[in-house]
TrEMBL record:
Gene Ontology MF terms: DNA binding; DNA-binding transcription factor activity
GO cellular component, one term: protein-DNA complex
PANTHER family, per database record: HCA OPERON TRANSCRIPTIONAL ACTIVATOR HCAR, TRANSCRIPTIONAL DUAL REGULATOR HCAR-RELATED
Alphabetical list of PROSITE patterns matching this protein: HTH_LYSR
Record carries keyword Coiled coil: yes
HTH lysR-type domain mapped to chain residues: 4-61
Family: Belongs to the LysR transcriptional regulatory family.
Ribonucleoprotein listed as a keyword: no
Protein name: DNA-binding transcriptional LysR family regulator
Coiled-coil annotated residue ranges, if any: 68-95
InterPro entries in alphabetical order: LysR_HTH_N, LysR_subst-bd, WH-like_DNA-bd_sf, WH_DNA-bd_sf
Keywords: Coiled coil, DNA-binding, Transcription, Transcription regulation
Length: 302
């Protein structure tokens, strides 16, 4: 078998992250033919096809995912070598990209980012906010290093294979109601109470399936009036008296962007809540900056 170079592995990582040879060449400041030739040579050296080509872009094959995991380990080993060389300074450094489920991000990330940046100013930290499936795909294709999302046990959610997860905390669902609505002063609010009233469904995948599943397990069908993928839109519509809603993340102020109040109520459903976890690739050795970020997350939710 021909030798495999670090440059080829770098190109493999870039194509997997960006989805095309053209985009990878642009990012790496080399010609498209250089990247294409390197990929062909790498596939020849390994004796496998690494990507499925289509008009929509390039996606890793199963063999490609294995090769990418090895490439990420090689990168991680080199990073650990650099970090070991810098150990005398006791500094954590390098690039770190974190993905976070959209409703968790504004509640958890600001505190974590501020503390992490204060402790490790030499780490170039960036983040993205997205739905669960997008985060999982980004993680498997090494577009992000860590993913913070919910632990969903739904048939509509593919199993998170190829990743390992660490539990952060569990958040039970709660109800949002208009302050002057019929449920605003009712004691012991249940899903049956909510099912009789208009519902504003938070529907960022797979959040909608999760909330509808709570009603389904109770043998109920809610009256969904509006669907939205925006956390803030849910709060705004409830504050306008247009329906009730379910969420898991809480804000300190119970007011919408229009400065209108709404009420929050605990739910009597006996649910342990929706777990929040932080995921990383199973086959990738964590470098110090990844573990440092996980440590700060654990402290933030303690």
């Amino acid at each position: 078998m021909s030798d495999v170079s670090l440059r080829q592995l770098e190109y493999l990582r870039a194509i997997a992250r960006l989805g095309s040879v053209t985009a990878a060449a642009r990012e790496l400041f080399v010609s498209q033919s250089t990247v294409s030739t390197a990929l062909t040579d790498l596939e020849s050296a390994l004796g496998v096809t690494l990507f499925v080509r289509s008009p929509k872009g390039m996606r890793l094959t199963v063999s490609g995912q294995r090769a990418l995991a090895v490439a990420e380990n090689v990168r991680a080993n080199l990073e650990q070598l650099r970090e070991s060389a810098n150990h005398e300074r006791e500094e954590v450094e390098g690039d770190l990209t974190v993905g976070c489920y959209a409703t968790i991000a504004p509640i958890l990330l600001p505190k974590v980012i501020a503390e992490f940046s204060s402790r490790h100013p030499r780490v170039r930290l960036s983040f993205v906010e997205a739905a669960h499936e997008v985060l999982l795909d980004d993680l498997l294709n090494s577009r992000i290093d860590l993913a913070i999302t919910y632990h969903y046990e739904l048939t509509s959610v593919r199993p998170a294979t190829g990743v390992t997860a660490q539990w952060l905390r569990s958040d039970p669902p709660y109800a949002l109601t208009p302050v002057d609505g019929p449920l605003g002063s009712k004691d012991g609010l249940t899903l049956a109470d909510l099912a009789t009233e208009p519902l504003i469904l938070f529907d960022l995948p797979p959040g909608g399936d999760y909330f509808l599943g709570l009603f389904g397990k109770a043998g109920l069908t809610p009256n969904v009036r509006f669907r939205t993928t925006s956390f803030e839109m849910v709060r705004a519509l409830v504050a306008r008296g247009l329906g009730n809603a379910l969420l898991t993340q809480r804000t300190v102020l119970e007011r919408s962007y229009e400065d209108l109040p709404y009420a929050t109520r605990e739910l009597d459903i006996g649910s342990e809540g929706l777990g929040i976890e932080i995921m990383q690739l199973s086959g990738r050795k964590p470098v110090r900056r990844m573990q440092a970020f996980i440590d700060v997350c654990r402290e933030a939710v303690a």
